[in-house]
């Protein structure tokens, strides 16, 4: 179920006897819709001559996601979306942005959008001058112009916060090698229950936003590098590239990044023979999918679940 709030409104009879693939890992049993897009509010009762008793009684009594039974899967990010990531062989950039979030920060939204998290973070960013004091970037395109992929590849930590429900901020972070900072209480992130997610991410409570830059600034360098190293071991499970069209686009991105490497070496007046040798080595290494992608990971998990369905 790809709805903003996933399987929250799935009929209870179906939910209890099915495996749900969803982008929204909300786990509380008694829940109400939190969307700020009112037509999508699934807890609005609706009575119709063919359904005189409404529909709320048909969807109550289950969470939006049950760990072990259901699966929170990545949203699709096309390869060009993360083309400047060092994980796809773009020359690495200095990660000089401490914390990053660019997108809808609720300027023209109802107060319950994003549970109010984006709005509060944006207000703190402005009021406490997080940009000047910590080089934190939080805002929309008007506040933070520039190339999105370049920004993510230049950030140490990236915020993962909800929107009207799920938001693909985790995929943005992981695919750029940026450590996810997850702020959504009671909501499981993509692959959080399948991978050692806590070893390559940070969770922050929704009521613990003040002082966030100060907390991240004192993370020891060795801890940060260890999380980055662990992220590099699993990032490919967040990318869909096994389909031929996506694989072709990924190869175009890889080849373009190899050309960027070569151009940089030539601009630095490197020995032509050395440039050619390094370029040839990069071409051999710049291959994907060399590992299982997101789709393979879904199939592997479903295969592992077969004994429990019998």
Question: Which key phrases capture this entry?
Answer:
alpha/beta, 9 strands, 310 residues, 5-stranded parallel beta sheet, 10% strand
SSE diagram, text form:
Blueprint lengths: L11 H4 L5 E2 L2 E2 L29 H4 L11 E2 L24 E6 L14 H11 L2 H5 L1 E4 L8 H6 L1 E6 L8 H7 L3 E4 L4 E2 L13 E2 L8 H6 L3 H14 L9 H24 L4 H14 L8 H12 L5
GO molecular function, one term: glycosyltransferase activity
Protein name: Exostosin GT47 domain-containing protein
Membrane topology: Single-pass type II membrane protein
Class computed from helices, strands and strand pairing: alpha/beta
What share of the residues does DSSP label as strand, in percent? Answer: 5-15%
Please give the alpha-carbon distance between the first and last residues.
23 Å
Nearest-integer average pLDDT:
95
Round the Cα radius of gyration to an integer and report it: 22 Å
Beta-strand segment tally: 9
Helix content: 25-40%
Pfam family, one: Exostosin_GT47
Protein name: Exostosin GT47 domain-containing protein
Domain Exostosin GT47: 65-212
Family: Belongs to the glycosyltransferase 47 family.
Describe this structure in words.
The protein is α/β, with parallel strands linked by helices and about 300 residues long. Helices cover about 35% and strands about 10% of the residues. The protein contains eleven helices and nine strands. The chain has helices at about 10-15, 55-60, 115-125, 130-135, 150-155, 170-175, 210-215, 220-235, 245-265, 270-285, 295-305, and strands at about 20, 25, 70, 95-100, 135-140, 155-160, 180, 185-190, 200-205. The strands form three sheets. It has a five-stranded parallel beta sheet with strand order 5-4-6-7-9. Strands 1-3 form a two-stranded parallel sheet. Strand 6 (about 155-160), helix 6 and strand 7 (about 180) form a beta-alpha-beta unit. Helix 9 runs antiparallel to helix 10. It is globular, with a radius of gyration of 22 Å. About 35% of the residues are buried.
